[in-house]
Amino acid sequence: LGWHYLDSGALYRVLALAAENHTLALDDVESMETLAGHLDVEFALGKDGQIIILLEGEPVTDQIRSEIVGNAASIVAALPGVRTALLARQRAFREMPGLVADGRDMGSTVFPDAQLKIFLTASAEARAERRYKQLKEKGMSVNLAPLLEDIKRRDLRDSQRGASPMIAAEDAILLDTTELDIEGVVTKILEHCQQRFDYEETPLSQGK
Questions:
Q1: Distance (Å, rounded) from C-alpha 31 to C-alpha 29?
Q2: Which tens digits make up the pLDDT trace of 162-188?
């Protein structure tokens, strides 16, 4: 597509890591809201075309993908004041020619007027397997069973939180990716884009 990209989950992960770096308790609501409002985060494009995430000028792309940070991010994401503080920052990513926004409340809360909303689902078991392989490839020592339990707990917490719960927007297209690999998911999404938007395929949109 050649559009801008927002990984909203990364913002909450960066916030959780920043709280750890500044020794702030995740249940200290006032401090977390203040930190969210002044979060020094930057998304830069690396030489290989990959997104580099910087926290206070330091690269943290790999650090924020740990399970510990992920669980902490799910906790802070449940704080209404934190979500409000990060809402404007997320919406600022919407620029021409377009934006692909990745997150659990993108279509329901952050961009309710989005022209195309796709709600990705997959079994907890499939997501745990994928996460297990990702972490093993990075040389991390992990066990599958705890990963699965963490995912189930996070799903429950995110779906039941009062502020912007994880729900599919009424006009969202549901796409079950349990039996699909990454290429299959991208192909399905691009098919929906072609049906909804008038654009010509480019090497970038073809995934080359």
A1: 6
A2: 777 788 899 999 999 999 999 999 999
